[in-house]
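User: Predict the structure for this protein chain, please.
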Amino acid sequence: MTSLAHITLEVTDVDAAEDFYRTAFGLDGRLRLAATEAPSSGFRGFTLSLVVAQPADVDALAEAAVAAGATLLKPPAKSLWGYGGVVQAPDGTVWQLASSAKKNTGPASRNVREFVLLLGVEDVKAAKQFYVGRGLAVAKSFGSKYVEFDAGTGPVKLALYKRRGLAKVAGVSPEGSGSHRVLIGSDAGPFTDPDGFAWTAAAEAASR
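Assistant: Here is the predicted structure, written as structure tokens:
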């Protein structure tokens, strides 16, 4: 079964981005950085999600991100499904911070339980079939609205969402053009999907 090994964000200033992510989220090898000057404007068609145990953890991540220079797009709040908020990193990447819990059960921490890449696609059903053909196994599917793939033993989970719906969840305009500025490392790459997202071989090195 195909699994995702890491995500590489293409940024204009690798050192600045590295400082931000180390300070805000303390992420490990699941997130890599590479330098680019490729033009990109507006919504890049994806978000990254950090799933944590409780609301206090969401607050801790959001506060650390904003203190490190992120923009708060949606303040953390309760919802039907749990508790979450959205921030935008200085490099432009949109991050969802979420917990399925609505009550705290212990001291706040920044321990991340799941690292999720959500791709905003034009046709969820078509994208689902494309990825199934590349060896990904479907874990959850809600028709033409949302698909979540089985991460297996991989450290990164993949999900598909309608582009406009994902932009609404993120609190940004769905308009955007140019490079997605994200590379997906897996044992299925390299290839480019129908929505223009580039996949690379898991062993391919990044700048950091």
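Residues 55-67 form the longest helix (13 residues).
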